[in-house]
Give the backbone structure.
Amino acid sequence: MKDILIKKIESAQVYEVAIESSLDFAKVISSRLSNTIFLKREDQQSVFSFKLRGAYNKIAHLSEAERKKGVIAASAGNHAQGVALAANKFRIPATIVMPTTTPSIKVESVTRLGGKIVLFGDTYDEAYQHSLQLAEQQKLSYVHPYDDEDVIAGQGTIAMEILKQYPEHIDAIFIPIGGGGLVAGMATYIKHYRPEIKIIGVEPQDAPTMHAALKAQARVELEQVGMFADGVAVRQIGEKTFEIAKDLIDEVLLVTTDEICAGIKDIFDETRTLVEPAGALSLAGIKQYIARGNEHGEKITGQTLIGINCGANINFDRLRHVAERAELGERRECLFAVTIPEQPGSFLKFCRILGSRGITEFNYRYADNHSAHIFVGVKVEDADKEKQQLLQSMNADGYAALDISDNEMAILHLRHMVGGHCSNIHDEVIFRFEFPERPGALLNFLETIGHDWNISLFHYRNHGAAYGRVLVGIQVPDPQRSRFDQFLEKLGYRYWEESNNPVYKLFLG
């Protein structure tokens, strides 16, 4: 199997549509991290993603009769563009089934490349099942985004280019993982020719498909996956990709949304290119790997590490969210909820505690004559070192301070709505929800959630993602709580109760 795949990679037909993307030395990042960092720039491809390699190679290996009937694929974006481009090159029809939540930039890109779009379902899984039905009904050739040997071989050509571009010593290559096509192809080639190079997969914490499979030693279907890094938002690792890659991967790292955002900012500072969240996974993994140190607890320095910038299809309106979270991910911002006396001079005294540090955010609203609650963001050089110092200084001077840097409710919602105490609200419970971001979804959510219980607080902000994020306060008397819990389960949205969140009690309760 391995020898066959190596031959497939070496004979893959990708360069009719793909370029040999550059392997760029990241000078600024390398200096800061005290290691030699290279970025493989797949964002340079004509569709701003590596996916055209596998898609073209698959279609190139179809028979003339199969191609003539047309091809079909399901994708939330990057694979769709690759299939549409490849089909256009062969002058054959391509049908792309996409979830209704797909960002408009990706839908429009596929249309421009000549693909016929079918929008179906809220998730990739729903779109995928519909695409299989259409393929059978219309006798179309299926181009799977990752679980196909020709697709895997096409993606593996990236590894072939890296080893040619940098024949010197390489310590580790960091590869984003969604369905596993990229890591399966690259790991097969690298471990065949350079087995000493570590293969380190990188996944979001909320979409750990390969990590969960390796831990269970079998493919695992995740109940839910986070949608921030939508390019790798897959519920289950591919069957073929898992069999190929499971013994070739040295480690899988899981990174947070904030770490991904920090990676996007780092790549922009280095290259002036905006990558999508999945495109920053590998750099986020490199930074975590270096910060963690080796098995002896020693700092990692002087290594040569390569990350794959796998895509740059990002909606412009997501940049606001990325910018807000990047400093937290870089550990250069701390968020605090601080209670101060409501008296002249309190703000001045508080600011003196912070010293010359920059203030990134300061939210306050008068509540009563006794005390005030403020939401403050502070710029720091190293949050892990300075956070405790700041907390101790504030508490020592009589300011009750709470670190909320990792409080998801505070970061997503409360920073935009500080100062909403209400004394005559009773039986209020607080929930965070995620719902599919499609036309009419917010209206439907409001109509559904507000049918039986009064809404006492509401905050929604569009982040340009496939899922909307909402904070809701609902008045639910204790005798109705059981019925309300049943309603939540039937609603079908991801949710988290935040009624006991300390920032809610400080600012809104």
